[in-house]
Design a protein that fits this description.
This protein is α/β, with parallel strands linked by helices and 234 residues long. The protein has twelve helices and six strands. Helix 2 runs parallel beside helix 3 and helix 10 runs antiparallel to helix 12.
């Protein structure tokens, strides 16, 4: 039996994914997680074979959670679920060890295909994005990547960035990460310096466009216009 953990911040989505998988004789859902931090913890606790994880989740987004899970000892295979189709983003995830990438508009039967493939440590990509992603992986362009600045960020800075994007104050971020407010302020300053931005609105806009943060806020609205005109500064 293939043991699966489902991570998504929407209860109805988790139920729907579980219902699809529980119909199959060779797959069992062993647990659920509602955010990235819980997903990392549940992986260590439940030891699933495969994690099906949304990329846009609170506290720790799916891409960051995937990196933590993959870097652990004897990790499960990770299948990402998202609306995002940017091939560069998906290529980065594949290079970090993600074994599957499903679009939310994929046919239901693709979920089973992805889980079974990932359990065998084989890569599965939704047909809608497979060609563009594989082309980039096979014919990797030379020269400086447009995301090179983003590669300078530490894991902690990425966590702080996600929490900033969710609208958390410095005190709330400090409490969540169990660090001091002064340390949060230092991380904010480092983020703006490394991404070469001046204010919080620009920081969030650049971070989203470079695939550093993922949020339902962006999935439900026009990301560019929100980040350009409505993001809170400070």
């Amino acid at each position: 039996m293939i043991k699966v953990l489902i991570a998504d911040d929407h209860h109805l989505v988790r139920n729907g994914l579980a219902a699809l998988l529980q119909k199959l004789d060779d797959i069992v859902v062993v647990g659920e997680a509602s955010d990235g931090v819980e997903a990392v913890d549940k992986c260590a606790e439940l030891r699933p074979d495969v994690v099906v994880m949304d990329i846009a989740m609170p506290r720790l987004d799916g891409s960051q959670a995937a990196r933590k899970i993959i870097s652990s000892g004897d990790p499960p295979a990770v299948v990402m679920l998202s609306i995002h189709t940017d091939p560069v983003l998906i290529q980065q995830l594949v290079r970090t060890g993600v074994k599957g990438y499903l679009l939310k508009k994929s046919a239901p039967e693709e979920l089973a295909l992805a889980v079974r493939s990932a359990s065998q440590r084989k890569l599965y990509l939704s047909p809608l994005i497979a060609d563009s992603v594989l082309d980039g992986l096979i014919n990797r362009p030379s020269g400086e990547s447009p995301r090179k600045r983003a590669d300078l960020l530490t894991a902690r800075e990425r966590e702080v960035l996600q929490l900033i994007a969710e609208g958390n104050t410095n005190h709330a971020i400090a409490n969540t990460l169990k660090i001091s407010v002064k340390t949060v302020e230092k991380h904010r300053a480092n983020l703006m310096a490394k991404l070469e931005v001046q204010g919080m609105a620009e920081l969030i806009r650049v971070a989203f466009l470079q695939g550093l943060i993922f949020s339902d806020l962006f999935e439900q609205t026009d990301a560019a216009s929100w980040a350009a005109g409505q993001a809170p500064d400070g």
